[in-house]
Write a structure and sequence with these properties.
Number of helices: 4
Structural class: mainly beta
CATH class of the largest domain: Mainly Beta
CATH architecture of the largest domain: Sandwich
Largest sheet: 6 strands, mixed
CATH superfamily of the largest domain: Cupredoxins -  blue copper proteins
CATH topology of the largest domain: Immunoglobulin-like
Distance between the termini: 48 Å
């Protein structure tokens, strides 16, 4: 794997004073907080100095798009203009929105045509780290650069010195630093998905991030890659995980030292800079052991430490979503099947039972409970009454990982591999490793048809998608 490395300019270079300060976020407004996004071709210096700029698709001329910042309780009004040569939509990943604002073409809204405009408007009840991206031809549109972070600040944010966002992405570039156009390749779709050869943080190949001894960072990690799973090792540091997919958890260290993010997942860290002035520590991605690489260095300034030590971070305030009641929930088995080295023998596509070779001729390789998502949206895999709770027994019966993303609601993780989880997790995207199992509960509060799909986007295109209907 080739990963070029060039200078990385930190998004915020100044340091706070010796006292921890809350990140203020935008002031609350009585009227909707307005923003605008324009999708259009652009050019970006992805590979850094000495390389040609890359032709990308961008929001407001940027990839990733601008960080949209709101405050918990705000109402957002976001005008989207499509200047691409193809139709698109925007999905607000992880945010509880009305079904008509969910951004799924032909399911929740008509697609936005070239030259068209659509205004999304919704409340923001939950604080946390979220992101936005197209849901039309999403494997290519995200793969060409259309993704951005959306931050909802708590009404009483935690005390930190700096609040940083790292949008992680990877790109398949040729020797001229241009995006290779082999999207929707069947080999990618039936295996691990489209893995790139160049990794960026906030749209640049990173080299170093400047830090100061004794400061505490709130580091918001967003995996906006279309297939790559990240397993970040912060050498010389012991970060605290404080939120997963925007939802607070009891602050804890990662069990194996790695911060693992599947596509679509987010992790909020409290990162205490405990190194000495002038020191440098590598952040390494080790998820794929044979192609481990250094992502960047945490480079300490020569300034004296801000403070000698920091206490463990406090738990963030819970968001107001209503957790499901597992005791009153029916159980539903959800089996993920297919892919290369899988055991799928027959699956239904558009009402017909087909074998693996026939599915391959239709560009499909994956199924949920024997059903393959075809050219249109499938019939619901599950129908729930509004307010009803359900338990999904997720079984990944394949040789490949799958980050399963649910729209419109959260998953309350109950168990993994048959063992209860050590702490409650509210997730909207859950990474299931090969042959893994997990039990999750959900509460169906918002009416509509909601997607449930793999966020390795080639897998979604290859049939790994279902619909949960709330009536």
């Amino acid at each position: 794997m080739f990963v070029s490395r060039r200078r990385f300019i930190a998004g915020a270079t100044g340091f706070a004073g010796a006292s921890l300060i809350p990140w203020p976020g935008p002031a609350r407004a009585a009227a909707p907080v307005e923003a605008s996004l324009v999708l259009a071709p652009a050019r970006a210096a992805l590979a850094g100095a000495g390389h040609p700029q890359t032709a990308v698709w961008a929001f407001n001329g940027e990839t990733p798009g601008p960080v949209l910042r709101f405050r918990q309780g705000d109402r957002a009004r976001i005008a989207v203009e499509n200047r691409l040569a193809e139709e698109t939509t925007i999905h607000w990943h992880g945010i509880r929105v009305p079904n008509a604002m969910d951004g799924v073409p032909h399911l929740t809204q008509p697609p936005i045509p070239p030259g068209g405009r659509f205004v999304y408007e919704f409340d923001l009840p939950d604080a946390g780290t979220y992101w936005y991206h197209p849901h039309a031809n999403s494997a290519e549109q995200i793969g060409r650069g259309l993704a951005g972070a959306l931050i909802v600040a708590e009404t009483a944010p935690p005390a930190v010195d700096r609040d940083l966002v790292w949008v992680l992405a990877d790109w398949r570039l040729d020797r001229q630093a241009q995006i290779v156009g082999d999207f929707h390749d069947f080999r990618d779709m039936a295996h691990a998905g489209r893995l790139g050869n160049t990794v960026t943080v906030n749209g640049r190949v990173p080299e170093r991030v400047a830090v100061r001894a004794g400061e505490r960072l709130r580091l918001r990690l967003v995996n906006a890659a279309s297939a790559r799973i990240f397993g970040l090792d912060f050498a010389g540091h012991a970060p605290w995980i404080v939120a997963l997919d925007g939802q607070p958890v009891d602050p804890h260290r990662p069990a194996d030292g790695q911060i693992v993010l599947g596509p679509g997942e987010r992790v909020d860290l409290a990162l205490d800079c405990a190194g000495a002035p002038g020191a440098s520590f590598a952040v390494t991605d080790r998820f794929y052991p044979r192609t481990a690489y250094k992502l960047l260095d945490l480079a300490y300034s020569d300034a004296s430490p801000l403070r000698a030590a920091l206490p463990p971070p406090l738990r963030l305030a819970d968001n107001p979503w209503r957790r499901p009641d597992p005791a009153k929930a029916a159980r539903h088995r959800v089996t993920i099947e297919g892919g290369m080295m899988g055991g799928l023998r027959l699956a239904r596509l558009d009402g017909r039972s087909l074998g693996p070779r026939e599915l391959m001729r239709h560009g499909k390789a994956w199924a949920i409970n024997g059903e393959v998502a075809g050219s249109g949206h499938p019939e619901p895999m599950l129908t729930l009454a509004r307010g009803e709770s359900a338990i999904l027994e997720l079984v990944n019966d394949t040789a490949w990982p799958h980050p399963m993303h649910i729209h419109g609601m959260f998953l309350d993780v109950l168990s993994r591999e048959g063992a209860p989880v050590a702490r409650r997790e509210g997730r909207d995207t859950l990474l299931l490793l090969a042959r893994a199992k997990a039990d999750v509960a959900l509460r169906a509060d918002e009416p509509g048809d909601w997607m449930f799909h793999c966020h390795i986007l080639d897998h979604q295109d290859g049939g790994l998608m279902g619909i949960i209907r709330v009536v």
